[in-house]
Amino acid sequence: MAVRDQRLVPSSTTRLAWSDRRVRGILWQVVVVGLVAGMVFWLWHNTVRNLEVRHIATGFGFLWREAGMPIADTLISYRPSDNYLRALIVGVLNTLRVAVVGIVLATVIGTAIGIARLSRNWLLAKVSAVYVEAVRDVPLLLQLLFWYVVLQGLPAARQALNPLAGVYLSNRGLFVPTIEWMPAHGWVLLAFAAGIASTLACRRHMLARQMADGKPRRVWPAAVLLIVGLPIGVSVLLAVPWTISPPQLRGFNFTGGAELSPEYVALLTALTTYTAAFIAEIVRAGILSVSTGQW
């Protein structure tokens, strides 16, 4: 009978001794975690004590105090007598207002410029290249100041520029037509969102079937039906009115429509043009990275 070598069989038991490597590893981890926790507690206790000595309040109680600061451009009602929490909400909404619109515009403009840089038209390609290089090399802060100065130099409301029908641009800002919003419009918007979600689910299902049998399937008919047809059907079913409110000159300013302040227009224009230059380079590099003959 063969005799097994006991030295080749690893021990499955852990001895509570300093000579055991696993015990030493656990003890060192406990010591390090304890030191870090002690240091964090000391820093926190020292900070709280120093703040108490200097009579500096901590916590989030300030959110319910009166803000006392005006905010010119708001999506919801706001007064300086409101608390800091409402002022914070207004700031977040204003940030989203610029970010969402800016992302959409910068993506569209940047994609178009990136494709234009690869055009066989020499003038179009060179103009696009000059735009990308010039805008990317100028600091964003200078571009913000530039567009704000340009807007402040526009004529008054009575001599406002009218680049498009119902759109007016003056030193008071940009005035565009709007739709008189009603609760029924919310159902149309919900149907539009549901159509987008259903289209994505349909596309995933079509791709799965294509991977199974190798037969390509068109998604755009379902996309048109869900994204366009579904909201139109809901609008017709609920008889939703689509009344457009255009801006009209009354005295020294416009009434009706939507008013975009010069500060908002300058910020949106600067961020859009600046970001579009970087998106254009990403699009151009992405197209060039695809081998000829591939999609």
Overview of the structural elements:
By secondary structure, the protein is an alpha+beta fold. It has helices spanning 21-53, 84-116, 122-137, 140-152, 183-213, 220-238, 262-288; strands at residues 161-164, 167-170, 173-176, 178-179, 244-245, 248-250, 253-255, 258-260. Strand 6 and strand 7 form a beta hairpin. The longest helix has 33 residues, at 21-53. It is extended, with a radius of gyration of 31 Å.
Itemize the secondary structure elements and their pairings:
Elements: H1 21-53, H2 84-116, H3 122-137, H4 140-152, E1 161-164, E2 167-170, E3 173-176, E4 178-179, H5 183-213, H6 220-238, E5 244-245, E6 248-250, E7 253-255, E8 258-260, H7 262-288
Helix pairs in contact: 2-7, 3-7, 4-7, 5-6
In short:
This protein has helices at 21-53, 84-116, 122-137, 140-152, 183-213, 220-238, 262-288; strands at residues 161-164, 167-170, 173-176, 178-179, 244-245, 248-250, 253-255, 258-260.
SS field, number of helical segments:
7
The coarse overall form would be: extended
Numbering strands along the chain, what is their spatial order in the largest sheet?
1-2-3-8
Q: What is the oligomeric state here?
A: single chain
Low-pLDDT runs: none
Query: H/E series, N to C?
Result: HHHHEEEEHHEEEEH
The fraction of residues assigned to DSSP E strands is 5-15%
Rounded to the nearest angstrom, the radius of gyration is: 31 Å
Secondary structure: helix percent = 55-70%
**Alpha carbon gap, first and last residue:** 69 Å
